[in-house]
Design a protein that fits this description.
Transcriptional Co-activator pc4, Chain A, six-stranded mixed beta sheet, five-stranded antiparallel beta sheet, 2 helices, 47% strand, globular
């Protein structure tokens, strides 16, 4: 079964333009979701310690998917942004938490996925950053 890691701390580096959401408490394995706008794309880094997935979805696709999310009981993710080989599954929970499932599909044998849950406050901060 899926185990979601909660991300609650947000920060913005004005020099680099990188918005980061991370788990509370800093250590070598702190999970992070970092995002920066690059023209019509978003540069996204999803990491846990030294393990990282990097993605470049279209800004408009990602922002549209987030803006139109609605909680659906029984489903963890209701939208995907990306391609069949690399995508971010998005789902909104009734309590306002956002589920993020960045996924790299290898082949029919499996995939690599991070299971992150952004708190309602972190989700609001991400939405505000995207619209700003």
């Amino acid at each position: 079964m899926r185990q979601f890691q909660t991300l609650s701390d947000t920060s913005f580096d004005a020099q680099t333009g990188i918005f980061t959401i991370s788990a509370a408490g800093e250590n070598a394995f702190t999970p992070r979701f970092s995002i920066r706008r690059e023209g019509e794309y978003l540069a996204i880094s999803i990491s846990f310690g030294a393990l990282e997935i990097a993605m470049r979805p279209r800004y408009q696709e990602f922002a549209h998917a987030l803006a139109h999310l609605r909680p659906v009981d029984g489903l963890q993710t209701t939208r995907q942004v990306g391609t069949g080989e690399a995508y971010i599954g998005l789902g909104l929970q009734s309590d306002g938490a956002l589920l993020l499932r960045p996924t790299l599909v290898g082949d029919a044998h499996g995939y690599l996925v991070f299971n992150y849950a952004l708190t309602a406050e972190a989700y609001k901060a991400l939405s505000a950053w995207l619209s700003g």
